[in-house]
Amino acid sequence: DSVAAVPAAAGGDTLVAEVAAKDTKQAELEKEEEEEDDSMRILCLHGYRQTGSSFRQKTGAFRKLVKKTTNTFRTIRYDFIDAPHLVDSPSAADVDLSGVSNNSGLLCLTGGSAGTERAWWFSKPTGGFNASEQSDWEHGLEESLKLVVAQLRKHAYDGLMGFSQGAAMAYIVLRHLENEEPALLPKFAILFAPFKSPCSGHNKYYDKRVDTPCMVVSGEVDKVIPREMTEALLPTFGQLSFFGHPAGHIVPAKAEHRTKYLSFINLFDKRPPR
């Protein structure tokens, strides 16, 4: 009898262990869902010739650096989307806004895979884009604006983050929302190497200032979007926090930068009511 009882007990122990494991897994899932519901959410717009996926990959160091607020320790969730327009093989006249730098502790941003690189809009009839070359021609901005606004309708985003052409796009999105759909406005924006669109048809987005609080980040030796191009945009911000760094066309992600980012983000760190 005692021999027969051993497997029964062992089997019972196994069953108890399985139930306990399932309960633990369920508790972990519920905790993750709760943290996700309570997280601070930021929508991220990639640069020219990048994709949402490549921008996510290349901002890993930044997201690790800035993963929780330090007021209430809310998790910060970053959502990445693709611009709607595919970029053909770049011509020599195209300015590469995907990012260049290999400095230690600084984020090097590269483009997406061939055939998948995307743009928020074009400034040339040939399908290219040059941020420093004025143009009376443009294509694609309205489609991109509709796409970003549609994404903002899906979730209550706390923040908007953009790099290079994505930062310029984020600026235009803020101006549109302030004029047309203020209920969708995020609480803040972080813009890396923003610039004024070179397309004359976009001048209407710069006739008034942006009142949404913005952190603008610019590299002293940026060769793609020179500091002066970003500085020319600064007077159009109503509530500005400027972060100048000594590097180039990158998202700076050194340990000492964490305080700068979080001191800005913490201004908007209030838990939603339950």
UniProtKB/TrEMBL annotation:
One of its GO terms (cellular component) is cytoplasm. One of its GO terms (biological process) is response to retinoic acid. Pfam families: FSH1. Residues 39-260 form the Serine hydrolase domain. SUPFAM superfamilies: alpha/beta-Hydrolases (SSF53474). Coiled coil: none annotated. Keywords: Hydrolase. One of its GO terms (molecular function) is hydrolase activity. Belongs to the LovG family. This is Serine hydrolase domain-containing protein. The lineage of its organism: Eukaryota, Metazoa, Spiralia, Lophotrochozoa, Platyhelminthes.
